[in-house]
């Protein structure tokens, strides 16, 4: 069932247009500058906090909101930042390269390389961990599954 006159609830299938930036205005590299995505409310595939922010919105509504780390990519976990010997890395390793840390059994990226000390700093956190994201969301469409109640606002 398609509707344009009721508020979004969990499990609605919605289409949104959005943009995401960091607090300072820098575009978020994981997203296109602007995107259109359709998803089931409660299952937003990119950032969990968007699921909460779209509740009670209606078609055509635009919302500017900040998504904090706990509802986005998490806080920075210091135990996922480690120093390793350059001898453990391939010769062609570079800053920003994603790698599998065999000792700690998780993926990480190379945050820095210190040639003088012959060590690299690896970080297993998401690149956006600890960041506050600024989303601009516009509701384009709402579809409610037939087995859910429809509440029409009058």
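-> sequence recovered:
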């Amino acid at each position: 069932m398609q509707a344009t006159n009721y508020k979004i609830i969990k499990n609605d299938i919605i289409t949104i247009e959005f943009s995401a930036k960091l607090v300072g205005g820098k575009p978020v590299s994981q997203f296109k500058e602007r995107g259109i995505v359709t998803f089931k409310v409660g299952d937003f595939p990119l950032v969990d906090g968007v699921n909460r922010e779209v509740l009670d919105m209606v078609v055509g509504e635009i919302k500017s909101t900040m998504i904090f780390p706990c509802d986005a990519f998490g806080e920075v976990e210091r135990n996922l930042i480690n120093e390793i010997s350059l001898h453990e890395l391939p010769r062609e390793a570079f800053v920003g390269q994603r790698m599998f840390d065999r000792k700690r059994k998780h993926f990480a990226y190379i945050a820095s390389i210190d040639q003088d000390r012959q060590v690299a700093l690896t970080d297993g956190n998401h690149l956006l961990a600890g960041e506050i994201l600024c989303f601009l969301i516009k509701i384009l469409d709402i579809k409610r599954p037939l087995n859910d109640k429809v509440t029409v606002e009058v």
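Residues 109 and 143 are 40 Å apart (CA to CA).
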